[in-house]
Design brief:
GO terms for molecular function: heme binding; iron ion binding; quinol-cytochrome-c reductase activity. This protein has 270 residues and is mostly helical. The chain is 54% helix and 1% strand. The protein has a two-stranded antiparallel sheet. Helix 1 crosses helix 4.
Length: 270
Amino acid sequence: MTTFNTPKQPRGRKAGRRSPLASVALIAIGLLFTGGAYAAFSTSTASAETNATSQQTVGEGQKLFAANCATCHGLAAQGSGSGPSLIGVGAAAVDFQVGTGRMPMQMNGPQAQKKKVQFTEEQIASLAAYVASLAPGPGKPDASLLDAEGNAANGAELFRINCAMCHNVAGAGGALTAGKYAPNLKGVTEAHIYEAMVTGPQSMPVFNDMNISPESKRDIITYLKYLEKTPSPGGLALGSLGPVSEGLFLWIFGLGSIVALTVWITAKSN
């Protein structure tokens, strides 16, 4: 009788069964694939929602522009005899001009007057987004440049060199030619100061990043805000207009008092 010996199975694993490490690897691959697919889908969805929101904002801005600005600046912001082209001025110019109430203009004159703002912040943002979509231009400044926590001493030096000849060393403003003027900078927001420097409204020159770096602009803002918070060391500031106002004060009140006293003494002597 022939005896057949059945081969023995190796110990530790039954026949036809995968290693536990293989199962773990399959689960890990499945999780990675699922997570990657979900992340890609979420990113594409968020990007699509952002683009849709941006397009909606631009569309709202275009409607507002057509209703309030196109009369002077043209339907395509190309400009006309009543207003300049806005192509390439960027969101910063719109935020400054509309955010300070200078636009829409109340009446024709040497320069636009600051007045009550006519639009909400959302509407201003929509107008800025529409104008920015027409061509590249200066954008709104980053919040880190508007904290007024820069170097006030450096800002004071830069302001004296670049701005004081028009705005006065204390930022009190001053008269220019042809009925124009440099406005008082007290109470102007940090964002609008920065936007004025990069866009050059009215008679003001443009100070791009090659002329004055963003950090230096932050220093100038810091200096101006320091002036607002610090009282005049000499007491009555007389409008911070410098020797002009001080000289007028002396001539009118000082010499006037002397003349009045002289007349009174003469009258008593007689």
